[in-house]
């Protein structure tokens, strides 16, 4: 593993900062979808990652560095900030690495969860399987399908329209939770058949989770059912208007469903 051990160490250290912010007596600082701690974490990760290898950098909170280098770090310091500030557990630190626009490494870490404890999933190209909380696992999504007993992970907004979400995810059940990065990580780890985002996402949201899915023989598709790519700055800023990550056939099926109904019902 060329970089993974050092990246995990940096992400776990960043997780301590995020967990401490969560535990503040008066709650995390910030409002809306911006938490004060997000910039602090990204600055710490940026310093550590750029010291590890000469590369470009694409982050959510700090100025991007794009020189055309072969490698590019892609960072979200707190994916799911709005839920974090509302008191929902499960936001995640997401660090991915692109080589020539292809994901080759990912670490997603949720330091504060409802029932899993601090939870990270990691992968680097050349590694067979994934690493979860220091333990090697070998999930395989290639032949999994939408069947009764499987789960599709969706955003916390799904709680407001349970019947529609149940129908759109059937015959699997739906599970609302923060952070598309963590939803993709859990799908890669074998806890769900797919993770879904129904709102536009940027590279910082999904590159790390995409890498994990590659390590588990899964796919990440856009709203048209096509593979998500990161070839241009425009794509880095918004890779898709919706995304579906997990078992390939399940994601293909989910991408064809009438998700617009969820938004029509709000008009």
Automatic annotation (TrEMBL):
Q: Which GO terms describe its biological process?
A: inositol metabolic process; signal transduction
One Pfam family matching this protein: Inositol_P
Top-level taxonomic group: Bacteria
Under the GO molecular function aspect, what terms does this record hold? Answer: inositol monophosphate 1-phosphatase activity; metal ion binding
Keyword Magnesium part of the UniProt annotation: yes
Q: What UniProt keywords are attached to this protein's entry?
A: Magnesium, Metal-binding
- Name the PANTHER family for this protein: INOSITOL MONOPHOSPHATASE, INOSITOL-1-MONOPHOSPHATASE-RELATED
Concerning its family, UniProt says:
Belongs to the inositol monophosphatase superfamily.
What name goes with this protein?
Inositol monophosphatase
Query: Which species expresses this protein natively?
Result: Aquipseudomonas alcaligenes
